[in-house]
Amino acid sequence: MSAFLIDGKAAARQLRERLAQDVSAFAKRHGRAPGLAVILVGTDPASEVYVRNKVLQTEEVGMHSFEYRLPADTPEERLLAQIDTLNRDDRVDGILVQLPLPAGIDVTRVIERIDPAKDVDGFTIANAGRLATGLDALVPCTPTGVMFLLRNLHPTLVGMNALVIGASNIVGKPMARLLLQERCTVTIAHSKTVDLEARCRQADILVVATGVPQMIPGDWVKPGATVIDVGISRIKQENGTTKLVGDVHFESAVERAGAITPVPGGVGPMTIACLLANTLSAAQRRTEVQSHL
Ligand code: NDP
Questions:
Q1: pLDDT tens track for 109-139
Q2: Which of 131, 150, 230, 284 is the most buried (most CB within 10 A)?
């Protein structure tokens, strides 16, 4: 039997529609729309595409977009000064520095310079720590998007066995923490995990974020499981053309899973929509804090 296909494009559209209404209500209440500032250093082609999409979608939901393009040889101090300016700018609720940064720039120093209240990527130590300890936080966008898809599908996740494959700071670790908050029993696997197959076979929820194309064969999937494929890689086919694939072997997994995200069109579209949601909630929090002062 073929699995239910989780339509990330439709879910992202729904979320953006809801956000557009909330943004308009915010603008009426506070006399300004929330603002998102994106900084791109250099001319990495993939980053250019991401930034263009972020700017377009920010404007589509009615938020202000501030775009800063700096040359690849920008000194770190210049980038830090730009972040300081945006931290002080009241029109800006969210600040995003597009990664990767050119070699020679200290990524941690740059991310840590962002005011945690404007850290809409959720990458600062303050936000990661708040999430880890169960406090209200700005949470990284991709795992937030995955939770949105899972909640649409399951009225409750309580007691489910969740396996997260991949332990990065931007996907795997925050993903595991969010699933733990939902009271799943969570395992995090990585490149040194022993007998990954046996762990996969026990997972009611399987989230894969390794960047290794098609590494999970369908027969590792527990029948009826929900499979969320975060990975996205371009592979060469026998006929010489290329195609985008995830970390799960989709054609075989779709025969065993209960529900599965396709690649593309699954997790990917949710990421930018959640960035916009984080920007609105950062704006709401900042405004509430100011009005209580
Ligand atoms: P990282 O490279 O930072 O982390 C990869 C993780 O996978 C590491 O923890 C690594 O283990 C683990 N890993 C690698 N190989 C294996 C293996 N053979 N078995 C088990 N675990 C393994 O990647 P990211 O988290 O940044 O991204 C992962 C994927 O998700 C990429 O394809 C990326 O393009 C995609 N992505 C998609 C997004 C979207 O919006 N759809 C957003 C962000 C990422 P170890 O810790 O031992 O090294």
A1: 999 999 999 999 999 999 999 999 999 999 9
A2: 230
CA of 190 to the centre of ligand 1 (A): 9
The two tokens of residue 185 are: 């029993």
Nearest to 270, CA basis, from 15, 1, 5: 15
Query: Residue 65: helix, strand or coil by DSSP?
Result: strand
Q: How far is the CA of 211 from the centre of ligand 1 (A)?
A: 5
Domains (ranges, CATH) in the chain? 32-115 (3.40.50.10860), 141-268 (3.40.50.720)
- Using CA of residue 126, residue 92, residue 268, residue 43, what is the dihedral sign? negative
Catalytic residue among 119, 121, 204, 229: 121
Residue 44 falls in the annotated catalytic set = no
Looking at ligand 1, which residue's alpha carbon is closest to its atom 17?
A: 191
Task: Note if 222 is an active site residue.
Answer: no
Using left for φ > 0, alpha for ψ between -120 and 50, and beta otherwise, residue 265 falls in left
The strand order across the sheet containing 64-70 reads 64-70, 35-41, 94-97
From the list 2, 36, 33, the residue with the least C-alpha distance to 141 is 36
Q: Whose CA is nearest to atom 5 of ligand 1?
A: 210
pLDDT tens, 134-147? 999 999 999 999 99
Q: What is the pLDDT of residue 291?
A: 63
Active site residue 98: yes
**Average per-residue pLDDT in the chain?**
97
Query: Distance between CA 171 and CA 174 in Å, rounded?
Result: 6
**Cβ of 273 less than 6 Å from ligand 1:** no
pTM passes above 0.85: yes
Q: Is the dihedral of CA 75, 77, 80, 84 positive or negative?
A: negative
Dig out the tokens for 37 from the structure.
Answer: 């500032």
Give the closest residue to 73 by CA, choosing from 96, 41, 97: 41
Indicate which residue's Cα is closest to atom 36 of ligand 1: 231
